[in-house]
Amino acid sequence: MDKKKYKYLIITLIVLVIIIDIVLFYFAFLKKDTLKMKEYENTDYSFQYRSDYEVKEISKEKISLGSNNKTGEINIVVTKIDDEALKRDKMFIIDEAQKEFSNNNENYLMNYSGSYNVNDYTVYDYLFDDEERQIDLNYILKDDKLILISYVNDNEYFDLYEERVLDIINSLKIT
Hints:
Layout: H1 3-30, E1 37-41, E2 45-50, E3 54-58, E4 62-66, E5 73-80, H2 83-86, H3 90-104, E6 109-118, E7 121-129, E8 133-142, E9 145-154, H4 155-171, E10 173-174
Antiparallel strand pairs: 1-2, 2-10, 3-4, 4-5, 5-9, 6-7, 7-8, 8-9
């Protein structure tokens, strides 16, 4: 093979490698950020969620979102608190709701509990694990409404899609 053909072969291979790198970079880093946000609104609250999720179930008290088995499921449940319960300390209401979950799901162990502020709300966060699945419970108490935003997923996918529930919490507006 003469030198001229060898040069063209090397240049062609270099150009081909560069094109493959650009395509891989696009799909690895840029394409995933092109997900659009959808908006959900009802009389109690509104929030935004990523377009790769869809509404799976909807009723007056509950909405379920998901995409497939890997992305897990996000549930939002609104409970009206009666006047007698509202006379109690806010943490009593949150603790009772969390205890009810624990009593109904004895195979789940609590890994974390804490609180943080988002917008005008305090979010009380509890993380449970049963060695196969994790459940992240986020309680928000506003006026006479207790809102539970839960995220359930298999352990191997939990961290990959947890950001989806944080998108909802960060965009939540309670009416």
